[in-house]
Write a structure and sequence with these properties.
The complex is a heterodimer of chains A (about 500) and B (about 100).
Chain A (H helix, E strand, L loop, with lengths): L3 H11 L3 E5 L2 E4 H15 L4 E5 L5 H12 L2 E4 L6 H9 L4 E5 L3 H7 L3 E4 H8 L15 E7 L7 E6 H11 L10 E4 L6 H13 L2 E4 L5 H10 L4 E4 L1 H11 L12 E5 L5 H10 L4 E8 L4 E6 L1 H9 L3 H4 L7 E2 L4 E5 L12 E6 L6 E2 L11 E9 L5 E6 L4 E3 L2 E3 L1 H8 L5 E11 L3 E10 L7 H11 L8 E4 L13 H11 L1
Parallel strand pairs in A: 1-10, 3-4, 3-5, 5-6, 9-10, 9-11, 11-12, 12-13, 24-25
Antiparallel strand pairs in A: 1-2, 7-8, 8-18, 13-14, 14-15, 16-17, 17-19, 19-20, 21-22, 23-24
Chain B lengths: L7 E3 L6 E6 L7 E3 L2 E2 L1 E2 L21 E4 L4 E7 L5 E3 L2 E2 L1 E2 L10
Antiparallel strand pairs in B: 1-2, 1-5, 2-7, 3-4, 3-8, 6-7, 6-10, 8-9
């Protein structure tokens, strides 16, 4: 099934309702469908439509516009350095880039075909012929970059059938009451931002886009827009708890449901949030880009049961990812590839129609239909999933996957650095933060602040190590592999 | 011709439109309002058989679990959806907590 059909059905059944809203501007479902056909005309003969801007109405119009044009949509992080954006865009033929007025001119100067968001929206809203809504869902809907374990980013390929299987399997068409509104503060280049748009379109729930997350603005938007549903990453939960303050309750009477996911949420943060939002249902969602977003949820009732329980096993479920969706299968496998019984930690595999496991230019990662998530964890006796961490070394800082190798490459370019390793150290606010352990070049007297500044100019703030420490040598195996676990243990012992 | 997932079909006698979500391995006869479903680009011509006038609802999934058939209704109409002459049941949806 094709993802444009989700919007086509929404326009037919609840076309007059507000679909998306940003500031004072908004589009109904009918207007959004018209704008998608308009955007398809703007895209013309391009083979890909990239989006390099913050949240705004141009995002849903571009996403559905690419679907209407039958071309792949590539949302990219607008905060990436120009060099990185250039490299990612150059990997695809014939790309039209929708970009904001900051990034746009710089990308145009690098030779990319750019249309700025305001011009794009205006052009998309001009009358344009509507085509036939396709049914077949085998085409590529989305190329979404994940950082993976190596420095070379890879694009997860999500086909229309993966995304629509997730939506029709997990939400009820037209299920939203006409007073419902969802606040979006996850970035457009995150799978949650994409899944969010599709699910809420199908539900018929008004989506309100926030430019970027700020706890005070978020709370104000919840009150001002009478928000009923919101999704955040754990870092945002910590910020919200700080802004509301211990012992205080959020003034958010309309907020019925708050879901969170994208990384491990520290239990103290979650307990503070439950105290701040006593009347709000909390849901923890676990999923990956390659699985079209959510594959497991810890429901509001699960939260309440865990909080009320004296049984340590039930209480512990507050730290779990909940249970898999009825449309998803899960196995925790041992090193021999066999499924492990409850309680034993192994590699997490998932299967289902929403699971893609495909990367651009690479063979499918699926094994007999099962996707190796590269997360490690275990199931409890009742099927609750506990995630222990990545089987590789990816650092998840504030919901964002960061490959250490990318930062290490930059550090190694500094003349005072002979060798280095970047690891994630546990952090209550960010989930993990970045620590670099550096072996100075012979005779060098390196300065941690200078190295941090150097990293920031080549990458960006979120990828700049929070801590830099110096050692004489790094631990390696006999085969020359760096022992990251030992680096981390030494670092934690010294902190 | 066997059904394929993603195929769009419509009623020959009412406004009902469907998309095939899951296709059975064997050939089946899909109908609505008492007449066989037709390609989505055809216009409805006949009238709904009163014996099959229960109607279809947009967004509902009509399924025969044994056959492995599932249709998603993309436009509502007055006819009842059938497979091999048997009325298709609406697939029960188990409500999930909102994670988006």
């Amino acid at each position: 099934m094709h993802s444009l059909l989700l919007l086509d059905m929404a326009a037919a059944a609840h076309g007059e309702r507000t679909a998306v809203q940003h500031g004072d501007d908004q589009l109904s479902y009918e207007e959004l469908l018209d704008a998608a056909w308009g955007a398809a005309s703007v895209a013309g003969q391009a083979a890909h439509l990239a989006y390099v801007a913050p949240n705004g109405l141009a995002f849903p119009v571009a996403l559905f516009g690419a679907a209407a044009a039958g071309i792949a949509f590539i949302p990219l992080n607008y905060r990436l350095a120009d060099e990185q954006l250039h490299e990612l865009l150059a990997a695809h033929d014939d790309v039209l880039v929708v970009a904001d007025d900051e990034v746009g001119p710089r990308l145009a100067a690098l030779g990319h075909r750019v249309i700025e968001t305001d011009a794009f929206l205006a052009a998309a809203r001009a009358p344009a012929p509507a085509g036939d809504v396709p049914g077949d869902g085998d085409g590529v809907a989305l190329l979404l970059y994940t950082s993976g374990t190596t420095a070379a980013p890879k694009a997860a390929v999500l086909r229309h059938r993966h995304l629509t299987a997730y939506v029709i399997g997990s939400v009820e068409f037209g299920g939203a009451g006409d007073d419902e509104a969802a606040l979006v503060s996850v970035p457009p280049y995150h799978i949650a931002g994409v899944a969010n748009l599709f699910s809420n379109t199908y539900l018929g729930r008004r989506l309100v886009y926030l430019d970027r997350f700020d706890a005070a603005q978020w709370l104000e938007a919840v009150r001002g827009e009478r928000i009923t549903h919101a999704m955040v990453v754990p870092t945002m939960l910590a910020r919200l708890a700080d802004a509301i303050g211990d012992g205080a309750q959020a003034d958010a009477p309309t907020l019925r449901a708050l879901s969170y996911g994208g990384a491990r949420t520290p239990a103290p943060v979650l307990e503070r949030i439950m105290a701040c939002f006593p009347g709000t249902d909390l849901t923890n969602a676990y999923g990956l880009t390659e699985t079209s977003s959510t594959v497991a949820v810890l429901s509001p009732q699960d939260h309440r049961d865990a909080m009320a329980s004296d049984d340590p096993a039930t209480r512990a479920r507050l730290s779990s990812a909940g249970r898999v969706l009825p449309t998803v299968e899960i196995e925790v496998r041992g090193d021999d590839g066999e499924a492990l019984p409850p309680g034993q930690v192994g590699d997490i595999f998932v299967a289902g129609e929403q699971v893609s496991g495909e990367y651009a230019g690479r063979p499918s990662a699926l094994e007999d239909g099962w996707f190796p998530t590269r997360d490690r964890g275990h199931l409890d006796a009742d099927g609750f999933l506990f995630i222990e961490g990545r089987s590789d070394d990816t650092i998840i800082r504030g919901g964002e996957n960061i490959a250490p190798a990318e930062i290490e490459e930059v550090l190694l370019r500094h003349p005072d650095v002979a060798a280095c390793v970047v690891v994630g150290v546990p952090d209550d606010e960010w989930g993990q933060r970045l620590a670099a352990v550096v072996v100075p070049a012979p005779g060098a007297q390196p300065d941690a602040d200078a190295i941090r500044d150097f990293t920031r100019t080549h990458l960006r703030g979120a990828k700049t190590p929070d801590v830099i420490s110096f050692v004489d040598e790094l631990p390696y195996t006999e085969t020359g592999k760096l022992l990251r676990r030992i680096v981390l243990a030494d670092l934690l012992a010294g902190l | 011709m066997p059904l394929k997932p993603g195929a769009k079909l419509r009623s020959a006698v009412c406004a009902t439109q469907v998309i095939v979500v899951r296709a059975p391995a064997i050939d089946v006869e899909l109908g609505c309002g008492g007449a066989a479903l037709v390609a989505s680009d055809e216009e409805p011509t006949g009238t709904v058989d009163p014996a099959f006038a229960g109607g279809s609802l947009i967004g509902k999934r009509y399924a025969d679990e044994e056959l492995g058939l599932e249709l998603l209704c993309t436009r509502a109409g007055d006819g009842t959806l059938t497979c091999n002459g048997v009325v298709l049941a609406v697939k029960g949806a188990k409500p999930l907590p909102s994670s988006d």
